[in-house]
Design brief:
This protein is an alpha/beta fold. The chain contains 10 helices and 10 strands. It has one domain: 3-Layer(aba) Sandwich (Rossmann fold), CATH 3.40.50.
Length: 234
Amino acid sequence: MLEVRDLHVSYGEIRALKGVSFGVGQGEVVALLGNNGAGKTTTLRAISGMLAARQGDVVFEGSSLVGVASHAIVRRGVTHVPEGRRIFNRLTVLENLEMGAFTRSDPGVPEDIDRVFSIFARLKERRAQVAGTLSGGEQQMLAIGRALMARPRLLLLDEPSMGLAPVLVEQIFETVQTINRQGVTILLVEQNAAMALSIAGRGYVLETGNMVLDGSARDLADNPDVRRAYLGEA
């Protein structure tokens, strides 16, 4: 479904990605692991058109996304839940969800709002509440729900557990699994490597802009280097 080929991305003179290549198959949950500054967020931003590639290609369902505007990438079926949620704080929950459907002109938007409310019952209770007054967990739910309103086939999730209490982290990851079972492929960037590998089928490890390791989630979880670096084991 998604192929990233020899991707190079720079911030001025700083080379953030140095020839990254990997793939995501239809229906998968794939984890992208690495320390801060490894290039994980940069990778997602390049896929979703928020950053320009200096070299390489991003191919989604057989067509290149390089040079395609972000809103057009959304129309092609790729949505991005950014690090830090980036909801519209002054709009209500319902208005945020409606904004997630801004690329659509079909009559199915109300049905999809109901679908999001079925996944996140707490959002339904707060549909008229101003989004900036929600708790951190509720804002993360809203950010994911807003992305689902575009009917993505590939969902890019950047640090969905950041700043959340453990009980909410478990809830968010259970929801990610539910979304995947409903047919949405997921590329997951997550500092909580143990949680990410518990729901992913495969994973990749980035270090300072280079892809250094890949394998099944089980193999990565059993790898001594991964366990030391990302799972907190001596």
